Amino acid sequence: MLVEVAWHYRHAPQVSPVIATRQDGLPKAVIDIAWKAQLRLNAKFNRLLARRMLKTKATVAVAREPVGFVWAIGQEVQRSGWKGVKSEPTSSTAT
């Protein structure tokens, strides 16, 4: 899964309208960590490619780093006491 995620860092960092909608209600610190991850991982991917590393090898090298950012987000959420965004109740239908 991490390798699949890492492939996305070959594209320039951006916040699409879909991602902006998902970020509504999130703490600013969490959004900042996510943006920092995009910048760092894209730069690392490009740096490795500039050194003429194969794309597949660069992707695997980048793949281990998102775990650190996920950990940082978890720590921030734990420190802030954030309880999450309110979700609308889903209706379950029995068939």
Amount of helix? 55-70%
Total helical elements: 5
What's the mean pLDDT score? Answer: 88
Q: Which word captures the global form?
A: elongated
The assigned structural class equals: mainly alpha
Number of strands: 0
Order of helices and strands: HHHHH
How far apart, in Å, are the first and last alpha carbons? 33 Å
Query: Biggest β-sheet, characterized?
Result: none
Task: Give the strand content.
Answer: under 5%
- Uncertain segments of ≥5 residues (pLDDT<50)? none
Rg of Cα set: 17 Å
Descriptive account of the structure:
By secondary structure, the chain is an all-alpha fold. The protein has a domain at 2-11 and 27-80. It is built from five helices and no strands. It has helices spanning 2-7, 17-23, 28-50, 55-63, 66-80. α3 (28-50) runs antiparallel to α4 (55-63) and α3 (28-50) packs antiparallel against α5 (66-80). The longest helix is centred in the middle third of the chain and has 23 residues, at 28-50. The radius of gyration is 17 Å and the shape is elongated. The mean pLDDT is 88.
